[in-house]
Amino acid sequence: YEEATVAEMYMLNVTSLGALFSQALVVSLFIGATYSVGFGRNITKANKNRAKLMGGSLIAITIATIVLRIVHFLEVIGFTYLLGENTELGFTKSFWIYFLFIMLFSVMFSLFVAMVGVLFKNMAGALAVGLALSLGFSSFFLVIVNQIVLMVFKLENFDIMEYTPDGLFMIFNLDLEGEVVIRSLVVAIVYLVVSLLTSLSLTKKRDI
Length: 208
Description:
The protein is mostly helical. It is built from nine helices and no strands. Helix 2 runs parallel beside helix 5. It is globular. 30% of the residues are buried.
């Protein structure tokens, strides 16, 4: 670690999923207030255009996610310089592309957790799923699922983690080839769009 660049340390921190914990917590509390806190519940219930109100909430979540990721990035820079000797930044073009992808994945993750909160109409559901993903608990279950898929369909190179909200953070790195990058981009966008549309649709159609 003493000889690692800031870029390498940032990638190690992202892979560990630690920063996702704070995201899951913030998003769960925010969405939970819509259904469990009297003030937020009353505003949502009285508003004729609930989808528009939820859209504003999702924009706020997106902004908060970006801020959290920037703070995390600055924390990594600070700690790397404190703990390392003759530390180099290592901010190449590849790193900034990686950073933008991680930002996209982070927004996708937050909107996915928000969708779970809307689906269950409470904070507990969003928090449970968010923490399970951010703390890696889901990985144990997915490893079993992956082995079953490999045996049943007789696949050789399939990895289910490449298609999960938390798995994208773990498999994505600075040295990935074009095919993996494109697949990760498509998976992230699909999750993001589905989460966004589902949250808006459920908020518009269901009672609070």
